[in-house]
Design goal:
membrane; 84 residues; transmembrane helix; transmembrane
């Protein structure tokens, strides 16, 4: 279970860094978001093929959670960009 959760904790930490410094790192957001989405999907496929159903469902749930954090970060950046 720890092996399943470790990459997601790293990604959430990176999300927090991007959220704090989003004004400076706006140019790299698209690359990070695309890589993060790809990583989440590939990790879900890997864990579903290698582990029990419970770990696969946990990994899938964390992938959805990670994608929602990326969406919130995107909305935050768009609000900063188009805001007054």
């Amino acid at each position: 279970m720890k092996q399943t959760l470790k990459p997601f904790f790293i990604l959430f930490f990176l999300d927090l860094i991007f959220l704090l410094f989003s004004g400076y790192l706006r140019d790299f957001f698209w690359l990070y978001a695309n890589c993060s989405i790809l990583f989440c999907l590939l990790w879900t496929l890997y864990t579903s093929s290698k582990s029990t159903a419970k770990m696969a469902y946990t990994s899938f749930f964390l992938s959805i959670l990670q994608l929602s954090v990326i969406l919130l970060l995107f909305v935050f950046l768009m609000a900063m960009y188009f805001g007054t």
